[in-house]
Every structure is written in structure tokens, then in C-alpha cells.
Amino acid sequence: MNILIWHVHGSWATSFVQGPHTYLVPVTPDRGPDGLGRAATWQWPPDVREVSPRELREQDIDLMVLQRPHELALAHEWTGRRPGIDVPAVYVEHDSPDATPVGTRHPLADRDDIPLVHVTHFNRLMWDNGRAPATVIEHGVIDPGPLWTGTEPRAAVVVNEPVRRGRTTGTDLLPRFARSAPLDVFGMRTEGLAAHLGLDPQRCRTRDLPQGELHPAMARCRLYLHPVRWTSLGLSLLEAMFLGMPVVALDTTEVREAVPDDAGVVSNRPDVLDEAVRAFLADPGQARYAGERARAAAQARYGVQRFLDDWEHLMKEVTR
What we know:
With 320 residues, the protein is of the alpha/beta class. It has 13 helices and 13 strands. It has helices at residues 10-16, 53-56, 71-79, 121-126, 162-165, 174-180, 193-197, 211-219, 235-243, 255-258, 270-282, 284-301, 304-319, and strands spanning 2-5, 22-26, 48-51, 63-66, 89-93, 116-118, 134-136, 152-158, 183-186, 204-207, 221-226, 247-249, 264-266. The chain starts with a strand and ends with a helix.
């Protein structure tokens, strides 16, 4: 099939485009949010083709994969065809509802012609999906291999824009955790984080690395710390588990589903999490064992082939 999909979430899209199709990715001269084109820091296969808005009108499109509300109108404007009416379409919801889970109605809730695909069961439960046919296809991660060494007695944290996102990603909790372990905070726009939190830069190092360097750098840290209060299940958490890293995480959103008891410590009690961080720093053997269990759990549930198989099944149904 020829599948139209915008480049929105690089990690998720990297797994999605491993399937047996041609992926038409819009590109604009400025490579802005609606025209990023092919990924610059991930390895995408040659079947991912960049197409301009003008070229899209001439393309055969078998399926539209939408990820943002305005793409409904944008797809019509750029292709001349209406998603869900003229061309089969699905909508991937990557996030938990921004506002209250009790009163947040999904933008597609009043349509029944475009299946709504959530990436976690938690998200499906929290959104008001209305009459949209809602399903779940859990994340699939390309296995980076068991790279964990834990040679650096530090805790890895992965978060983009921690200053702007604040309490959502648990940025306010980092000074507390920094008393238990020095932190390496990886992600985009992390510069100035230590000063913002009033921390010594050595207790809160920030690193915005290319994708190819990220996993080895994470894997040198003794443990992975996930202080996120309210987002969807982070792919960085799953990637850390694939690396073989022990996990210390808040017991929020879908984390409890992903992290089994022997793969780390999941709790909403800060004192329990503090103690877990200190214990992994003090006992590399315990960290190694928990990391091995984390890797096994991630391989069993979040492998990329299962993800692609789930998508193949759904796409066949939608385009049948």
C-alpha cells in the first residue's frame, strides 16, 4: 500500500515505517512541523518517500495515518481527498488527555468512519472516545541490544523540554532525586536545567545527543529514572528496558503494566523511590539482575514485529 503519514513522533514512526509498504511523508521547503520529511537522526528504509504538498495530489494513496487534529483538514487540502470518506484513514492518538480524564472528549469522538488507535490501554480508558471505533496497538521498539554496563553510578532521565513541561514530566522532583544519585538528563532543550532547579551541574548533567549516541550513553548509567506524572507511556522507558537497565519509576499512567515487579521499583511514595535509587547505586549485581528482567519483559511485550503484525491486521480491516 501507499500510506500517507506525517513525521510527528520520530521514535514511534521509526518502528511504523519498518512495515512492507511505501510511506509518503510530506516535506515542505522549511521542513516545518507539517513538512519535516524523512528523519535525520533515525534510520528509515528507502520505502519512506518524501513528497511535496503539490505532488500529493498526483499520488495514489491507499491509507492515511493521521496523528494531529488539523491533519484532517490538511490531508484534504493537500490531496484533494477527505480522510475516512474518499480514502480510508486511521487516527493515532499518542497522548493521554491534557486536561481532566473525566471531561476530555477526543477530537474524533463524533466520527465513526475513522478508527481511533491509542498506544496504551490507559489512554483509551481516559479519553472520551465518543462513537469513534477505538482500539489499542501498543508500542513496538526496535531492539537496540543489551548495551547496559552501569559503569557510571548515575541515574539516567530522558525528557524533552523539562523546564517548559515542569510538573507534567516530574521536573520538580529532580532536586529530590539528585540527593540520592547524580543525574544525567537526556533530551531536547535540556540546557539550563541545573540552574533552573538550583542544582550543581555535576548533580544534574544535561545532554542532547544524536539518536545514535543516546542509547550507549544511557546504558553507561547504573539505572533509569522515570519521574513522569502524566504523559503517555514513554518510549524512552521501554528503550531503557530493552537496553537492560533497572527502572525506578512513578506508578502513573501505563507504567505498572510495562514494568514487572522484578524489573525495578514502581511506586508513588518518594521515600520508596529514593531508597530504590540508592540501592541500585550501591549494588551493581542487583541492578544487573533487575535490568535483565526489564529487558526480558520488554522483549516479550513490546517487540517491533508484534507491533507491525498488529498494524497489518488493522490496516487490512480498514482498507478491506
